[in-house]
Amino acid sequence: MGILEKFSLEGKVALVTGGAGLYGSCIVEGLAEAGATVYLASRNAGNCLKAAEELQRKGLKVIGAELDQSETESIARLKDKIISEQSKIDILVNNAVLRPMKSPEAIEDFDLSMKVNATGVVNVTRIFVEEMKKKKSGAIINISSIYGVLGTDLSLYEETEMSAGAPDYFFHRAGIINLTRYYAAVLGPYNVRVNCISPGGLFNNQDPRFVERYNKKTFLGRMANREDIKGAVVFLASDASPYITGENIMVDGGLSAK
């Protein structure tokens, strides 16, 4: 097999949680463009079905589904659906994130954040990985953030209506990075690779003042775009990275390397 063939995901079945969101839509499209059959799922099944239909019109194999990752029954139903329709799951992308905590003082929202973003991620992984263990093959990709590694830079947000975020986001984005290392260790004997990517800011028509400041802090002088996110995930999902596990790849234009 030549090196370009190793990047192909033809014949693979993938699930992307939170697949209709800003980052999720990039990931779903990239995996499908590489040949995978991709399920995109979130609590808003309508958004997922609509996003799937748009990609189907491009000739991509994408299926919308419902998933509330705070509920074990919902996770199990989705797993049963995928296995009944595809007979396997090769790739799991833990991308879904809930951000109910709007300020450091909104402590009543912290529990809900952890139920979805911590317990939920572990539960999705626990349930889906059983299918990977049976066939001794699989790739799990966790999506974190530069804010799982770095503290916030308040100067980026000055004189804008944008927020630097709340503590729950920093807490669970950091946690998923070390959770990646844990699962890489325990699933290695089953030939299941577990990696993480920590993207920097994705351009989405943010306040021009924020964009200008952010660009100056990266080596490449720009924010991330959709292709940047696609490439990293496809690489980790494919046979082009068979000896990579337990890693957290910074996809941030060099921001964290300064």
- The oligomeric state is single chain
Assign a percent range to the helix content.
40-55%
Tally the structural domains: 1
The pLDDT mean sits at 96
How would you portray this structure in words?
- There is one protein chain.
- With 258 residues, this protein is α/β, with parallel strands linked by helices.
- It has one domain: NAD(P)-binding Rossmann-like Domain (Rossmann fold, 3-Layer(aba) Sandwich), CATH 3.40.50.720.
- 43% of the residues lie in helices and 15% in strands.
- The chain is built from eight helices and seven strands, in the order αβαβαβαβαβαβααβ.
- Strands 3-2-1-4-5-6-7 form a seven-stranded parallel sheet, sandwiched between helices.
- Helix 2 (22-33) crosses helix 8 (226-237) and helix 4 (72-86) runs parallel beside helix 5.
Key structural traits:
Rossmann fold, alpha/beta, 258 residues, 7 strands
A few lines on this structure:
With 258 residues, this protein is α/β, with parallel strands linked by helices. It has eight helices and seven strands, in the order αβαβαβαβαβαβααβ. It has one domain: NAD(P)-binding Rossmann-like Domain (Rossmann fold), CATH 3.40.50.
